[in-house]
Design brief:
Length: 193
């Protein structure tokens, strides 16, 4: 399975493509990097750059699914809103290319990959580097986070943990699902009104 991991952002969007066997226990890095935008750009141009570059990555690697780190907001609401807008462009790019989306909290990713939900950036980067057999640590940190998201999905996507880890928490998480409360169900209701 080819999994695209994404660490959303506006200045830096980390991405990592991982190949995993059916068990999810054997993973190999395919490629990874970061989409960067300059803070001097207009917000709408930064979002367009994220969308355009991610769309090209999706077309190049044809992932079977994507694992996205859920957003965590601290105190800066303005930055949080802009990052959420960029995340919307990320979800749109995935959706337009029919890539199933799975969302994981930072705690879930850290617990799944490092075995400790409070692992710091250095511990996560070291663990990702070691488990994927990389010669060097992925730079920037956002790239390591994206690889970790893909690894988390590989570890949990086919297990019984998937029900716990992949509970839809947003409309994006309901993409591809059917039945009551799914995006398709909501769309049908809106069209019938």
């Amino acid at each position: 399975m080819i999994i695209l991991g994404i660490d959303p952002g506006i200045a830096i969007v980390g991405w990592g493509v991982v190949s995993s066997d059916a068990s999810g226990m054997r993973q190999k890095p395919v490629d990874f990097g970061a989409i960067t935008t300059n803070s001097s750009m207009r917000t709408e141009d930064r979002i367009l750059a994220v969308y355009t570059e991610l769309s090209a990555i999706i077309k190049k690697y044809s992932p079977e699914c994507a694992a996205i780190e859920e957003l965590f907001f601290n105190t800066n609401q303005k930055t949080g809103i802009i990052v959420a807008e960029a995340r919307g462009a990320i979800i749109l790019a995935l959706r337009q290319n029919d890539v199933p989306i799975f969302e994981y909290t930072p705690l879930q990713i850290k617990n799944s990959v490092a075995g400790y939900g409070r692992a710091d950036k250095h511990q996560m980067t070291d663990t990702v580097t070691r488990l994927l057999g990389l010669r060097e640590k992925p730079k920037p940190d956002d790239t390591a986070d994206a690889l970790a998201a893909a690894m988390c999905h590989a570890f949990t996507g086919n297990s019984r943990l998937a029900e716990y880890y992949n509970k839809p928490t947003t409309m994006a998480g309901k993409i591809g699902q059917t039945g009551r409360g799914s995006r398709s169900d909501i769309a049908k209701k809106l069209l019938n009104e």
